[in-house]
Amino acid sequence: MNKHLLSAADLSAADITRVLDTARHLAQVTDRAVKKVPTLRGRTVCNLFFEDSTRTRISFELAAKRLSADVINFSAKGSSVSKGESLKDTAATLEAMGVDAIVIRHPASGAPHRLAGWVDAVVLNAGDGTHEHPTQALLDLYTIRQHFPGFAGLRVAIVGDVLHSRVARSNVLALRTMGAEVTLVAPPTLLPWRVESWGVQVGYDLDAVLAKQDVVMLLRLQRERQQSGYLPSLREFTRLYGLDARRLAALPEHAIVMHPGPMNRGVEIAAEVADDPARSVITDQVANGISVRMALLYLLLGGPAIKEPVEEAR
Ligand code: CP
Q1: 36 an active-site residue?
Q2: Is position 3 annotated as part of the catalytic site?
């Protein structure tokens, strides 16, 4: 693996398999009464969040703490960023304090790449603008692997606001690397320019593709990134692209429903679909995020070779 995790494009099939296998080992820690191992004792992880987050920030914090690392949570709100401090100066400050890993979420696409050029610490991209969210893709693949024996030929539909979705980009890259067949389904206005070069199928009619899918991954309609003109109306988007009970019934019986969160219930996904215990794996995605992020911190910070059972913290 590379020193940093900046893009899913940097991960080979062997890298992805190693992360998922390591996460499976480390998931044992979460099942214990004392959810902690000493692996990263003495190492410091900084969560550097310039954009709101619930799942990613908390699961990175839990992941680092379960490996016994020291954790610093930095939020742009309430920091010297509000006084005009640049990302480069913030990075230099963290570096001077001796952090070993920086987990960064930033509204600007490419910010993690810039950061990686300024610091010696390992940089993990926790979502940058509309570019990528590689740890989300890895936890999604981990969740898929809990339901299917492999990725080769697996049919995955990614539905909704692809244009603004870093989750879609990272998932397309990782799923294609593993041999899955990805179909993007969206209104033409919510698909990126030259999307045909992504090596995926593209469809505009959700009802036409549902019966063939093993996995349906809904994307959050990013209302905060919407400028006028992308959609005639929210109601029309939901009518054409929302996953409701009728569409759920059109999926094969074995198919699973995913959503990276946060959800717009009643927009891209109906509440009854999101809460369907037989089909929805949305809470599993959240839980798996901890194990996958533990695996990434472990592998990138150079933890010792995994032995079974994983050693307990004293
Ligand atoms: N999926 C995801 O990135 O969620 P958060 O924005 O809550 O971290």
Answers
A1: no
A2: no
